[in-house]
Design goal:
heterodimer, A: 491 residues, mainly alpha, 18 helices, B: 112 residues, alpha+beta, Alpha-Beta Plaits, four-stranded antiparallel sheet, two-stranded antiparallel sheet, 2 helices, 20% helix
């Protein structure tokens, strides 16, 4: 997603140079300045994504648990947000968005640890040649993604996990799952690194010059995460955020086990009012998430904005009407669940599909996630308390694969962008539907396997160290009193 | 003295209160309760989870009256709380040994 050039610190440029040949020094000579409009929009987008987590996701989840566990969910989400924010500036940003040397396909390095070199003058690339953001802002925007993704997981094993186990698991999960996946999917050299190298190649006179320039271009193109290099598209986080968190949640709820009383006692939501407020805050915040992922205040951001709006409307109504037909009543919880499913599904496609494609995707996601949560989950009998897998993972998979189709210009999509063909400006790239969909599938499979397997190992480790689950007595009493010593409602 | 305890539909409370006031009953205690009799519950669906809810919300009224008044009180409650649908509730009458008004120390009939 970005190439980081630091204008004031030649050592940073030198370090990059060792890994990726020449582009770092080339950029350091004359870099563009960030535009005020882009900065203003991206600050707002960053705040909107924070609002998705707190209070949006916290209330959405909190309303769905029993009143004796309300505070535990709010506490878990809020604590994860704070923990992820600190871990991000310490090593997360560096591991996700800096060059990783020999491991660059999988994870970044430590050159940006403790925000080393990421000062007020540093800039980060966008998707347009000659357009940059302050790197601190890019870092903060991406931080909010690293905050919400692990917070999504807690819904799968809500009402029974031990708080200490959760904090330990999330810390390890961020380092071993989130940062690598974010690096694999989103890290790339940026349009200027590629454009400048391509320009140098076009201007090279003799054979030696051409060979050197070609090597530089190859290095710039190779300086990216593995999944990015496969050509997989993930505009705002279908794989990185939703599949990633969804599969981790499924593994977690399987390993922790069902809630006491599951299938026998009334485990109904204690406040669907809170859930509706939370879902609505998620929807509004998601415009920062999706439209902000354009990284600029431009047409792509507006496209992502419109797609996010219409896909959500379609998915909410889709779930509502399908549930009405299948179960007899149109429910609020069904409708807001559909809205979230649509937001999830449109996320990877948001800046790439056309609005009509986004509506089709929304309609499909509402119906598919309804079927999954209502029938498939019951058939398998696992207790994913708040349907993290059924909504986020299934919606994410649907969206990630659909992005491969919907980006097609013939289906109203934007098509691909080629930064080499016309150096210095993006040009339409070669789009082959089968190739694209296969790349999307590979990204989905790698994310499922990586997050699923590493999460399983981490849950096992944490269970051995501190135990994953509270005692049955504490679970009966409720986590609010048992784990946190306070009650949500004292009247 | 008798205690008349009635289980009624929640929305019938005001009508019952008016009917009792009209026959000179000037106090009662009301509690929100749940229960079931012949009226069955309903099904609630939260995404994939379906729950049969068999305990329905009702109100429990307790009125302490002199024995001579019991028949009138029963008639007042029964006629005011009746809708003719199942789930209208029940009335139970039991003996009451003593009554004390805490403020004045009055006893039994004077305390009602």
């Amino acid at each position: 997603m970005t190439f980081l050039s630091n204008l004031r610190r030649p050592t940073a440029g030198l370090a990059l140079c060792l890994l990726s040949a020449m582009p770092a020094l080339a950029q350091a000579t004359a870099g563009p300045a960030p535009a005020k409009g882009d900065i203003a929009w991206m600050i707002v987008a960053t705040l909107l994504v924070l609002m998705m987590s707190v209070p949006g996701l916290a209330l959405f989840y909190g309303g769905l648990v029993r009143s004796k566990n309300m505070l535990s969910v709010l506490t878990q989400v809020f604590a994860i947000v704070c923990l992820s924010g600190l871990l991000w500036v310490v090593i997360g940003y560096s591991l996700a968005f800096s060059p990783g040397g020999a491991l660059n396909d999988y994870i970044g390095g430590l050159s940006k640890a403790f925000l080393s070199g990421v000062d007020v003058n540093a800039t980060a690339a966008t998707f347009s040649n000659g357009v940059v953001l302050p790197e601190l802002l890019f870092m903060a925007f991406q931080m909010t993604f690293a905050m919400i993704t692990p917070a999504l997981i807690v819904g799968a094993f809500a009402e029974r996990i031990k708080f200490s186990a959760l904090i330990l698991f999330i810390t390890l999960w961020l380092v071993l799952v989130y940062y690598p996946i974010a690096h694999m999917v989103w890290y790339w050299a940026g349009p200027d690194a590629i454009g400048d190298a391509a320009k140098a190649l076009a201007e090279a006179k003799d054979a030696a010059g051409k060979a050197a320039a070609q090597a530089r271009l190859d290095a710039a193109l190779a300086d990216a995460g593995m999944i990015y290099k496969w050509g997989a598209l993930d505009f705002a986080g279908g794989t990185v955020v939703h599949i990633n968190a969804g599969i981790a949640g499924l593994v977690g709820c399987l390993m922790i086990g069902k809630r006491v009383g599951y299938g026998r006692e009334l485990l109904a939501p204690h406040s669907l009012t809170m859930t509706m407020i939370g879902a609505s805050l998620l929807w509004v915040g998601w415009f920062g998430f999706n439209a902000g992922s354009a990284l600029e205040a431009n047409g792509t951001a507006v496209l992502a904005f419109v797609n996010t709006m219409v896909a959500t409307c379609a998915a909410a109504l889709s779930w509502l009407f399908v549930e009405w037909a299948m179960k007899g009543k149109p429910s609020l919880l069904g409708m807001v669940s559909g809205a979230v499913a649509g937001l999830v599904a449109v996320t990877p496609a948001s800046g790439l599909a056309g609005p009509m494609g986004a509506i089709v995707l929304g309609l499909a996601s509402g119906a598919v996630c309804f079927a999954f949560c209502s029938y498939v989950k019951n058939a398998f009998g696992y207790d994913d308390s708040l349907d993290v897998f059924g909504v986020h993972c299934i919606g994410g998979i649907l969206g990630a694969i659909a992005t491969g189709f919907l980006v097609a210009p013939g289906l109203g999509g934007t098509g691909l962008t080629d930064y080499v063909m016309k150096p210095g400006q993006g040009a339409p790239g070669d789009y082959v539907m089968a190739t694209q969909v296969i790349a999307q599938l590979k990204a989905v499979v790698v994310t499922l396997l990586w997050s699923g397997l590493v999460s399983a190992a981490l849950f096992k480790l944490v269970d051995t160290l501190v135990g994953l689950r509270v005692t049955v007595e504490k679970e009966r009493e409720g986590l609010d009193i048992a784990e946190h010593g306070e009650r949500a409602y004292t009247a | 003295m008798k205690t008349v305890m009635a289980i009624i539909k929640p929305f019938k409370l005001e009508e019952v209160r008016d009917a009792l006031t009209a026959i000179g009953v000037h106090g009662m205690t009301v509690t929100e309760v749940k229960g079931y009799g012949r009226q069955k519950g309903h099904t609630e669906i939260y995404r994939g989870a379906e729950y049969a809810v068999s305990f329905l919300p009702k109100l429990k009224l307790e009125v302490a009256v002199e024995s001579a008044q019991v028949a009138a009180v029963i008639d007042a409650i029964a006629s005011a709380a009746r809708t003719g649908q199942i789930g209208d509730g029940k009335i139970f009458v039991s003996p009451l040994e003593q009554a004390v008004r805490i403020r004045t120390g009055e006893r039994d009939a004077d305390a009602l």
